[in-house]
Design goal:
By secondary structure, the protein is mostly helical. The protein has one domain (3-207). It is built from eleven helices and four strands; from the N terminus they run αβαβααααβααβααα. The protein has helices at residues 7-11, 33-40, 52-57, 62-73, 82-86, 89-105, 110-116, 124-134, 148-155, 175-193, 197-207, and strands spanning 19-23, 47-51, 107-108, 137-138. Helix 4 crosses helix 8, helix 9 (148-155) crosses helix 11 and helix 10 crosses helix 11 (197-207). The chain starts with 6 loop residues before the first helix and ends in a 9-residue tail after the last helix. The relative contact order is 0.14.
Length: 216
């Protein structure tokens, strides 16, 4: 079984419409609460819906943008204290300064990605979302989300696409080391299917570990 076998489904993936309902109560009484209050003030029933399209077209400042990405990625604020730790001013504000510099450059190196990842409480999955929605390229490669579900799909051994074996040792803990290879692989695969790489990413997120080779 190959990812490319699902080409027609992948090309039809509604990437821009992928949305999550955010439980606003989960985000109450937290760091950066003034920004959060501004984001959620127009909601009803304490639910805010954000789509990929919303994050791509947002014209808010970087502080608000990053928090919206966090809310989209972690509608109930996630487990543990990582997000709360990251949003503490001593961690959040230096990160925003570095992200601002990266946005000005538009294209950064993997070494600069490591620098961004130094922010306490920030994981690579979250950082990949921020870079993706800001359309900041890495070594001239279009950025994509790389979270645990995509990682598990690529490393699962379920798919036999050309060159996918380079991800057999891919884990969340070493994801940043494989990130440029991931971007190149997805770009090449998207070209073969005449689609966009984020369509493949969304396919892997939704179906990557739920498909098995059909046997009669």
């Amino acid at each position: 079984m190959k990812i490319i076998d699902f080409k027609n489904l992948i090309k039809a993936m509604p990437v821009d419409f992928q949305s999550f309902d955010i439980n606003c109560k989960s985000w109450e009484n937290t760091a950066q609460n003034q920004i959060i209050d501004k984001i959620v003030k127009a909601t009803t029933d304490n639910v805010l819906t954000l789509s990929r399209s919303d994050l791509f077209i947002t014209d808010c400042n970087l502080n608000e943008f990053v928090i919206k990405v966090l809310m989209w990625g972690y509608p109930t604020k996630g487990r543990g204290i990582n997000i709360e730790t990251f949003m503490q001013p001593e961690n959040f504000l230096p990160f925003i300064e570095k992200l601002n510099e990266a946005e000005k450059k538009k294209n950064i190196t993997i070494s600069e990605v490591y620098e961004l990842l130094n922010a306490k409480g920030l994981g690579f999955s979250t950082l990949s979302k921020i870079l993706y929605f800001k359309k900041i390229t890495i070594e001239s490669k279009y950025t994509l989300i790389l979270d645990r579900r995509v990682i598990n799909a690529l490393a699962s051994g379920r798919f036999a696409d050309q060159d996918i074996e380079i991800f057999k040792n891919l884990k969340y803990e070493n994801a940043i080391k494989h990130y440029v290879k991931y971007l190149k692989f997805m770009e090449t695969l998207a070209s073969r299917m005449n689609t966009k790489a984020d369509n493949i990413e969304m396919f892997l997120f939704i179906f990557g570990k739920n498909l098995f080779k059909y046997k009669r």
